[in-house]
Amino acid sequence: MEELTNRFNRQVGKIEVSLIRRFDEQVSSIKDMIKLTLGEPDFNTPEHVKAAGIEAIEQNYTHYTGMTGLIEAREAMSKFFDKKYGITYKPETEILVTVGATQAISAALLAILEEGDKVLLPSPIYPGYEPIITLAKAEPIYLDTSKNNFVLTPEMIDQAMSEYGDQIKAIILNYPSNPTGVTYTEEEVKAIADTVKKYPIFVISDEIYSELTYDGLHISISKYIPERTIIINGLSKSHAMTGWRLGFILADEKLTKEIMKVHQYLVTAASTISQKAAIRALVEGIDDANEMKIEYKKRRDFVYEEMTKLGFEIARPNGAFYIFGKIPQGYIQNSMDFCVDLAKNNKLAIIPGIAFGQAGEGYVRISYAASMETLQEAMKRLTAYMNNKK
Q: For residue 184, which of 161, 159, 209, 157 has the smallest C-alpha distance?
């Protein structure tokens, strides 16, 4: 068997398991550890949504759906997106039901990328995109937004296009952002859209946290450039349905037709049971995220204030459930070393900023998707650590 180990796809050898997951596993064995590591709601799936899943099992909805998913689920998502964001997608031809947002990302990227293509990534950014880009034999081009409060500007796009030209196939947006919690105003979204219009590139817009926008409304870039935008969305964050593995792709009919081919061969179809639950979530639970959002906002304010007191520089987040803080001077500046030291000495696990790209080095990410009681204890431990290291 050993002689076969060098016969794997060479691109697989260029990717690694997510540093977020590796770090989380590394600290999980430490007794009494508080983990603010993973981006998973601490809320449970709403009861009426769980009931829909149970009903689906009892009614024997345990067989395949069509490749694109139940038409009822696509219709529900179409109406949800129209009501929430004022954009209409045809359920018959412009929406795919996927196995979570992660599979949606894979299907979209593998459908558009070829060897030698380049993809623009505003950094720091969620680390789930680069490995798929690499598997497609394409190359990520990082645009450092750390000097601009983590907001991508039209000038950054223009500069990259000037340097790489037709090699650029797509740009990925993720907002509200993981890891920063920063999102875009309508003016900022429109400015990016106007800039993208000048170039023959796709926009992959990962809007999985769209329902967790705190002040103001979420503005999808597809409002301005629907013909080239591929929206990634789902119910993991809005309805605390991470384990149901249910996501959506929304895109122009011509794009959806091609993405569907890749989607089919990756998964055949999403879980029928999960789709039945999704219909309930999108229709009867259209505003289920509101209660969670109120709690998240309280937690954000608390963690932001506590970390600011300790000297962390933070771009105040307006969405998702993350705080991305710059490690104060005088402390360990290597983010991995800082987080390992904190975990070992004070039993608090947070994610090193380097997990989100080089622009994240020197920062740490805290997920405040945890109870206020847990967060209060976490801030006590962080305060004790910082005071002890002065």
A: 209
Q: Which fold has domain 47-283?
A: Aspartate Aminotransferase; domain 2 (3.40.640)
Two tokens, residue 137: 């034999």
- Residue appearing with tokens 């937690």: 299
Task: Give per-residue pLDDT as tens, 6-51.
Answer: 788 888 888 787 888 888 888 888 889 999 998 899 999 999 999 9
CA distance 105 to 128: 8
Amino acid at position 201, single letter: I
Domain spans of the chain, in order of start: 2-44+289-388, 47-283
pLDDT digits 0-9 by tens, 112-128? 999 999 999 999 999 99
DSSP codes of every residue in 181-229: -----HHHHHHHHHHHTTSS-EEEEE-TTGGGB-SS----GGGT-TTTE
Helix axes 253-267, 100-112, angle to 10 degrees: 120
pTM: 0.95
| Residue matched to tokens 């009426």 | 48
Spans of the chain, pLDDT less than 70: 1-2
Angle between helices 272-283 and 71-85 (to 10 degrees): 30
Half-sphere exposure of 307 (CA within 13 A, CB side): 27
322: left (phi over 0), alpha (psi -120 to 50) or beta: beta
Instruction: With beta carbons less than 8 A apart as the criterion, state whether 233 and 101 touch.
Output: yes
CATH number of the domain at 2-44+289-388, out of 3.30.460.10, 3.50.50.60, 3.90.1150.10, 1.25.40.10? Answer: 3.90.1150.10
